[in-house]
Amino acid sequence: MKVTLKDGSSKEYASAMSIYDIAMDISEGLARVAVAGEVDGEVKDLRTTLTTDCTLNILTANDQEGLRVLRHTCSHVLAEAVKVLRPNAKLAIGPAIDEGFYYDFDTEPFSREDLDAIEAEMKKIIKAGNRLERFELPRAEAIKFMADREEPYKVELIEDLPEDAIISFYSQGDAFTDLCAGPHLMNTKGIKAFKLTSSSMAYWRGDSNKARLQRIYGSAFANKDDLNAYLAHLEDIKMRDHNKLGREMKLFLTADVIGQGLPLFTPKGTKMIMKLQRWIEDLEDNEWGYVRTRTPLMAKSDLYKISGHWDHYQDGMFILNEGNEDKEVMALRPMTCPFQYYVYMNEQHSYRDLPYRMAETSTLFRNEDSGEMHGLTRVRQFTITEAHIILRPDQAEEELTKCVELCNYVMKTLGIDGDVTYRLSKWDPNNKTKYLGDDKYWDETQAYLRNVMQKNNITFTEADGEAAFYGPKIDIQAKNVYGKEDTMVTIQLDCAAAEKFGMYYIDENGEKVRPWIIHRTSMGCYERTLAWLIEHYAGKFPTWMCAEQVRILPISDKYIDYANKVAAALKKAKVDVTVDSRSEKIGYKIREARLDKLPYMLVVGEKEEADSTVSVRSRFAGDEGIKTLDEFVAQIVEEIENKTIREEIPEDERK
RNA sequence: GCUUCCGUGGCCCAGUCGGUAGGGCAACUGAUUCGUAAUCAGUAGGUCAGGGGUUCGAUUCCCCUCGGGAGCUCCA
Fold it and tell me: How far is the CA of A436 from the C1' of B75 (A)?
């Protein structure tokens, strides 16, 4: 038997060998860290015996695949521990996930104390060092096996498999056996570092009509250092969480009596948003050829009946005057589209006038379910940089490309271009009633967007069931600190709306023709964008978007007049500046300014006043020395105008 | 909307086995006039999320509502 290794080398073995023995053979001691083997691309248990020629990749806990095997085994140890402490708990499923593993149980909720007790029990099991043994049963016997053990969820899982299936199990010692295809570590002793991180509720098979289970999350690593680094990472995440940091930094707040998903922005948060808004509006209007509209925040239900929202999206709208026969039923707008269509239809358009690009900084209302709201990323009222582009079909490719370019430019300027991924969001072919249009419409429009992305060399994934009900989307997705993905920017192609609303343009033959429509955002909504900026920068924003860019710190009251003079010079240059005129020591003022994550502090005292200079201290580099006032003004004005993202020198590398 | 945990001054938290609350930071006032991450002293601030119930008495126990976290479901 010839075994080819990943590095291309190969070795002949006279008789059948287990992966474990081969691992021992190739490199003495490797088996101590080997957790599984990848045989011809398929991950196998270490004990698997190889009999024929194959390629073999020994996986260790340092490999991504190997780590999954380790974590998967850890989830089985978790299951055993729970069965020890709660013999009546019923087992559901326990897979490895991206950053760890979980296991679902039908039992009472777990408290943190319960998790600690379970961890202790797991340690005992690991220390006992039970071997994991694989065995197989025919389907009928497998069902009986789990029925005898009173594990209804396992029985259900096996019943879903074909009649002739051979079912695989793993036992770990005598005490515990679980339904599992594997692979696993050979021995529970291989788990060197793990932690149960949280518990929560989950539905059996993710179905809210089915049983409510208790899920325990945990993670496992090759060694304690990796685990500690992961736990430190979790702490760092908490520090960046926009919902915590944004409130701490006094950018926004919520009030119980105002309601869920309705954030209030403070002067500081508002100033940041206004900087983003003024930038994007100027950009669109001046450089990208948009006209701007202002349209109502509500409309009669008739409008939404034409647009299709009344039939497809009624649950998501705030409806007014419902049940009041004396008054007309209205709804707050969940989107701007039809409002701008009427602006377009206000006059006749020639084919020469297209594309007609209408932009609006638009406040929208969406009646999200109460459990969906989160910080600034899922809210009931938000303001979005929206546009609708009315165009001829022959212009679509070029215009879609322009939209992608604008979004790229915006992401890059915000400094978050590295955080995003592209997705082609398609309809759900198995649930067509949710959508307008037929197979042909969706096949064509989806192919169209796919083609545009391919031609622009964009790497993207495709997802079913993520489209708007009226058309497919190019979505630019970003993950929050917890790894949860949300749509940042969306570019949608809609070839159906024009027909419904009776929109047309006059072509070169004088005929009325239906235009196509692109719905697009350039930055997404300000609430969500601010959330991402907070998390991306951990509150240390680039200077241009900071609400307070410079704080002047007079050494004592004697220099307040000079501080005000410096402030006036900066204000004249449109820099957001304040003076800390409190009778505090300079060290105290610096400490506070640093806690406020300010980009620049200017210390002024006797020397500075005498020479018309400022002593510059920045968040980026610490002490930047003495500069003349003119010099500093020129420097910061340039930084703000160019929207420079200055790199921060780590504290310990500063002079 | 579902399950679960949670809600004590602006923030972080302590406390009450039922007898209406305390600390640190912040704020305010005074003194200090200071050279690169915390000067000293004093003052004020809480119907213990809101409502109802049990009780002689509730912030503490029970119920409902509102709000927050986690996880589902959802997401134009």
Answer: 18
CB-based burial label for A621 (10 Å; 0-12, 13-18, 19+): middle
Which CATH code of 3.20.20.70, 3.40.50.300, 3.30.420.40, 3.30.980.10 fits the domain covering A65-238? 3.30.980.10
Report which residue is nearest nucleotide B66 when distances run from CA to C1': A256
CATH code at A2-59? 3.10.20.30
CA atoms within 13 A on the CB side of A116: 3
Q: Give chain B positions with protein CB within 7 A.
A: 1-5, 7, 11, 31-39, 49, 66-76
Asked if strand B contacts A625 at the CB level, meaning under 7 A, the answer is no
> Residue A477 to residues A318, A484, A485, A504: CA-CA distances in angstroms?
27, 10, 6, 33
**Model confidence over A3-28: pLDDT tens digits?**
777 777 778 888 888 887 887 777 76
Question: Which residue shows structure tokens 């521990």?
Answer: A81
ipTM score assigned to the predicted complex:
0.85
- Say if domain A543-653 classifies as CATH 3.40.50.800: yes
- How is residue A133 written in tokens? 């043994």
pLDDT tens per residue across span A224-233: 888 877 877 7
> Beta-carbon neighbour count of residue A407 at 10 Å?
24
3-state SS string over A278-321?
HHHHHHHHHHCCCEECCCCCEEEHHHHHHHCHHHHCHHHCCEEC
Is residue A650's beta carbon less than 7 angstroms from any atom in nucleic acid strand B? no
Residue nearest to nucleotide B76 (CA to C1'): A468
